[in-house]
Automatic annotation (TrEMBL):
Signal peptide, first to last residue: none
Molecular function terms, GO-annotated: oxidoreductase activity
CDD domains recorded: DUS_like_FMN (cd02801)
Keyword flag Oxidoreductase: yes
Region entry Disordered, spans: 349-372
Descriptive protein name: tRNA dihydrouridine synthase DusB
Naturally occurring in which organism (per UniProt): Arthrobacter halodurans
Cofactor annotation: FMN
Gene3D superfamilies cross-referenced by the UniProt entry: Aldolase class I, Putative flavin oxidoreducatase, domain 2
Keywords: Flavoprotein, FMN, NADP, Oxidoreductase, tRNA processing
Domain of life per record: Bacteria
Family annotation (PROSITE patterns): UPF0034
Length: 398
């Protein structure tokens, strides 16, 4: 059993309320304007199922590399797989070469494997930016334009809405988001999402919601989605109020807390219903997550290795002894998992603020690794051009 609508709820005195229309992405209507951010290694079919059981929204798969998808490697096909009851099959592509990205979109469209496609221009991981990919890419306006044009052209053939997700820029001296947003709009994207950080911030500091508001104002004709540092339904409402965005994108805030999507739906419906699970309910969700991962990977050992990284997120703020935490973080099988979870205090209530707030990646600012000479011009040099076509890596990042 997981947390349900019958779970005891906390009532706040002044509930966050908001009237926001459904999010329109081309022909799609997303009733609750909330998006699960693509997260490599997290937002697979298993986690998406858990999240969407709590609330409406758009649930994006972890990114897949265009090259690997075109080559149909096993992991890529698994990443883009969806449950039969996923109403909107959403896929995120990463790529640096217009031809390969176009081919990946064509594959998804022609084979009817996606109802929504997002392009990743936000990844700050050095092995990606060092090759001019992810958040380094919009700096090269010619390359960025060519990729988005190729992708929208192919997506339009199947009337599949295509969106982009980006950061503010490489660093504060090399901001690209307004220009990139306009290029993407002109190419016909259905929406743009902005994570309010630069690449060099990685996940440090605070997301700049003013930049999100600025983008919203600069693109009056398409939906703009805001991303960064939403840890609660109340944060989501604040972001909409402060920036005017058409929807919110949630990443780390839901790690170990799929019920956040229930809170978000409630807030957007103007109710004060919030999920406040006790330890037993958290343990049940954790166990269910592990079971779903076994189905996803079709490999119990792999699934159990994967669930280990979720331990600290699920049990943040709950009383779980150090030894038990350590054992959970090394759990080998579902059977051992059940034994370990049975040792938890089934009556321990929701711990309040300790279970809330920031979680997941943080880190410190770092100078962004870039190809030599990348910042010297906004256009690709011949040398960068040849590097780019060899740079479609098998990456996973964020
Ligand atoms: C573990 C992890 C993996 C990520 N993977 C991706 C990814 O595959 N594609 C992407 O566009 N962003 C990725 N991101 C970035 C998130 O989608 C999101 O933009 C970022 O975490 C900021 O939102 P948040 O403050 O709500 O977490 C990743 C983030 C994390 C923490």
């Amino acid at each position: 059993m997981t947390v349900t609508a019958e779970t005891p709820i906390a009532t706040t005195e002044a509930p966050a309320r908001l009237e926001l229309p459904p999010l329109k992405l081309g022909k799609l209507t997303v009733d609750v304007p909330v998006v699960l951010a693509p997260m490599a290694g997290i937002t697979n079919k298993a986690f998406r199922r858990l999240c969407r059981e709590y609330g409406g929204g758009l649930y994006v798969a972890e990114m897949v590399t265009s090259r690997a998808l075109v080559e149909r490697n096993d992991m890529s096909m698994r990443i883009i797989s969806h449950d039969e009851d996923e109403a909107v099959r959403s896929v995120q592509l990463y790529g640096v070469d217009p031809h390969t990205v176009g081919a990946a979109v064509r594959l998804l469209v022609e084979e009817d494997r996606a109802d929504h496609i997002d392009l990743n221009f936000g990844c700050p991981v050095p092995k990606v930016t060092r090759r001019g990919g992810g958040s380094a890419l919009p700096w090269k306006t010619d390359l960025f334009t060519a990729i988005v044009n190729a992708a929208t052209r192919e997506a339009a053939r199947g009337d599949v809405p295509l969106t982009i997700k980006m950061r503010k820029g490489i660093d504060e001296d090399h901001l690209t988001f307004i220009e990139a947003g306009k290029i993407a709009r002109d190419a016909g994207v259905a929406a743009v999402a902005l994570h309010g950080r630069t690449a060099s911030q990685h996940y440090s500091g605070q997301a700049d919601w003013n930049a999100i508001a600025e983008l919203r104002e600069s693109l009056p004709d398409i939906p703009v989605l805001g991303n960064g540092d939403i840890w609660s339904a109340e944060d989501a409402v604040r972001m909409v109020e402060q920036t005017g965005v058409d929807g919110v994108v949630i990443g780390r805030g839901c790690q170990g807390r799929p019920w956040l999507f229930g809170d978000l739906q409630a807030a957007f419906e103007g109710t004060d219903r919030r999920f406040r699970p006790g330890l037993k309910e958290v343990a049940d969700s954790f166990h269910r997550h592990a079971e779903l991962l076994v189905d996803y990977f079709e490999d119990e050992g792999k699934a159990l290795r994967d669930i280990r990284k979720h331990v600290a997120w699920y049990f943040k703020g709950y009383t779980v002894g150090g030894e038990l935490r350590a054992a959970l973080a090394a759990v080998p099988t579902l059977e051992v998992l059940r034994e370990l979870l049975a040792q938890l205090d089934a009556d321990a209530p929701y711990p309040g603020a300790d279970a809330e707030g920031p979680r997941g990646r943080a880190g410190s600012p770092k100078r962004t690794a870039l190809p030599d000479g990348w910042l010297e011009s906004r256009e690709l040099s011949a040398a960068h051009k040849s590097m780019i076509s060899a740079a479609e890596l098998d990456v996973s990042g964020g």
